[in-house]
Amino acid sequence: MYQQLKLDNQLCFKLYTASRLVTQAYHPLLHPLGITYPQYLVLMVLWEQDNRMVSEIAERLLLDTNTVTPLLQRMERDGLVVRTKGAVDGRQRMVSLTKRGRQLEEQAKEVPHCMSAQWKLPDMDEEKFIEFAKTLDSMIALMQR
Question: Reading across the β-sheet that carries 93-97, which strands appear in turn?
């Protein structure tokens, strides 16, 4: 058996597993709000700055517009966002929060605190956590090339 082919030696598997489990951990917090984790991400982008182009949302989430568009369509059907044609270029789609979408920000404000409490490791203080996040940011930047 080649050591490089052992599952336990694969960083990608550890990252995949961590991602899947973190997303799964969000479910009980987001389900009462009636949103999924990908919808939560879109909402966070719009809570930072409302009325954005679909391409801006996709870029901010590091996703293709083809992935974001069906998500936005579902969110529009659920009354969270409104999509309109761009004023300058009618081919562009602008996305804005509805009243319900804006109200969810207040309801979701404790979600990050609940999540960070779940993955607080005994030997990881705030400084180590910040350093870990920076390492992940560096890895993401390398993978985007």
Answer: 52-53, 93-97, 81-85
For 21, which DSSP code?
H
Cα torsion angle, 78, 118, 10, 137, sign: positive
CATH topology of domain 3-109: Arc Repressor Mutant, subunit A (1.10.10)
Measured on CA atoms in the order 94, 100, 102, 107, is the torsion positive or negative? negative
Task: Using the predicted structure, report yes or no on whether residue 90 has a pLDDT greater than 70.
Answer: no
Provide CB contacts within 8 A for 96, sequence distance 6+.
46, 50, 51, 81, 82, 84
Residue type, 36: T
pLDDT classification of 122: cutoffs 50, 70, 90: confident
Q: Which residues pair with 85 in a beta bridge?
A: 93
pTM: 0.89
